[in-house]
Amino acid sequence: MSTDRPIVTRIAPSPTGYMHIGTARTGLFNWLFARKHGGQFLLRIEDTDRERSTPEATQAILDGMAWLGLDHDGEAVSQFARADRHREVAESMLANGTAYKCFSTQEEIAAFRDAAKAEGRSTLFLSPWRDRTDHPQGAPYVIRLKAPREGQTLIADKVQGDVTIQNATLDDMILLRSDGTPTYMHAVVVDDHDMGVTHVIRGDDHLNNAARQIQVYSANGWEEPIWAHIPLIHGEDGKKLSKRHGATGVMEYAEMGIPAAAMRNYLARLGWSHGDDELFTDAQARDWFDLDGIGKSPARLDMKKLGNVAGWHIARTEDAELVTEITDFLALTGQSSLSQAQKDRLTSAMYCLKDRAKSLPELLDKGRFSLINRPVDMDEKARGALDTVSRRILSELTTQLQNVSWDRDTLEGVLNAAADTRGLKFGKLAAPLRAALAGRSVTPSVFDMMLVIGRDETLGRLTDAASLSD
Ligand code: GLU
């Protein structure tokens, strides 16, 4: 295919009730490729299986795409809705002699196969109707492709290299069933052609289909697209990804609180590479993405790596944007939402939370101190840090902190001096402070917490903790 046409890619998911991460990754590759080249990224829903293709199943695809930020150009195309066009093409192929009506019944085909087996021949069905014109009137028929019987079909694949298929191993596939419905293999080619798709980037489970699809392109005199069949994603043990490896649906990652940007980065690296770069932005991925960087061997899912990628993205995302992502995460997972005041406090806390969090819920958990109200709810360990002596120290601190300037240097000075004069290591003082301020024993630094919640709230929480009984 010549490359002077504007680039058009597509994702063509069959609704299965959820969006598999393999589909998400295929979508991402197509999206990156189109966006890099200023081309178009189209969405076609392959909804010809009417039982599976419920509105909910289709919505699950749209939700997955929307969450991952894969915006497609134009309206989503329904394959089912294009059945008339698929029929029209099959009819025109009949007219130009690249397809034929086959009147063989199921029984005749079965008998053909049985005989072939008994005689040790290939069981590939060779229709007796391929060159016949004495058609029975009114009898049901299918339309078959008059595929070349000799020679080879070449799939010049950008990832797999040249793959040659002997035409003798392919039968005359059905394009239109006897009820007039198109087969999937026929519909895909007609749709890709009509949508102007220049590059078909998809899972290598479709590699064999490409040979048949190329035959349909050439039967119609259509230019075939550039093919890139990408290896499937495997689990950590190197076996084909399945439920037992963990989350296979992209929305499960959303529900774990992986930011979408991190998921894009991680999925991009599952099967594609740019030197040793593991961590990158969308803009970099767009600049760097090319088909040459797609590997030939299956990529393995690695949850630890995903956590590191998520951590990197969280650390470099704007504070307000992280709060928006947390808000979306809470809505997605059906948790109660944050008030505007809580969002404001969380935003101002973000600077001390985001450096080591590997997911949005982790970030939220670290920021809990900024969201809670007095009296602070305490866990057992925190409560254990508030013995009589500690409570007395907290009480003395409330007085000392009343009039000092509320900045980091001053607070450090006051608290370090408070520890020194009592002959305590700072950690000894920090434990009751953490308990009082956050109700937990593991928290951001006490200075950060005090600065974020401010003087009044700090003094209030210290007073509450100081007045607890044994
Ligand atoms: N509908 C196919 C799938 O979901 C994709 C077909 C294609 O990309 O050509 O696997």
Q: How would you explain this protein's 3D organization?
A:
By secondary structure, the protein is mainly alpha-helical. The chain is elongated, with a radius of gyration of 32 Å. It has 19 helices and twelve strands. The model has no long low-confidence stretch (mean pLDDT 96). It has four domains: 8-78 and 185-233, Rossmann fold (3-Layer(aba) Sandwich), CATH 3.40.50.620; 88-176, Glutamyl-tRNA Synthetase, Domain 3 (Glutamyl-tRNA Synthetase, domain 3, Alpha-Beta Complex), CATH 3.90.800; 319-368; 372-466, Arc Repressor Mutant, subunit A (Orthogonal Bundle), CATH 1.10.10.350. The strands form five sheets. A three-stranded parallel sheet has the order 1-2-3. It has a three-stranded antiparallel sheet with strand order 4-5-8. The chain has a two-stranded antiparallel sheet with strand order 6-7. The relative contact order is 0.09. Bound molecules: glutamic acid. Glutamic acid is lined by residues 12-14, 46, 188, 202, 206.
Keywords:
470 residues, mainly alpha, Rossmann fold, Glutamyl-tRNA Synthetase, domain 3, 4 domains, three-stranded parallel beta sheet, three-stranded antiparallel beta sheet, 19 helices, 12 strands, 10% strand, binds glutamic acid
Record the SSE blueprint.
Elements: E1 8-11, H1 21-36, E2 40-45, H2 55-68, E3 77-78, H3 83-96, E4 99-102, H4 106-118, E5 142-145, E6 152-157, E7 161-166, E8 174-176, H5 184-194, E9 199-203, H6 207-220, E10 226-230, E11 233-234, H7 250-256, H8 260-269, H9 282-288, E12 299-300, H10 303-316, H11 319-332, H12 340-349, H13 360-366, H14 368-371, H15 380-384, H16 388-400, H17 408-421, H18 426-438, H19 446-466
Helix pairs in contact: 1-9, 3-5, 5-6, 8-10, 11-12, 16-19, 18-19
Bound molecules: glutamic acid.
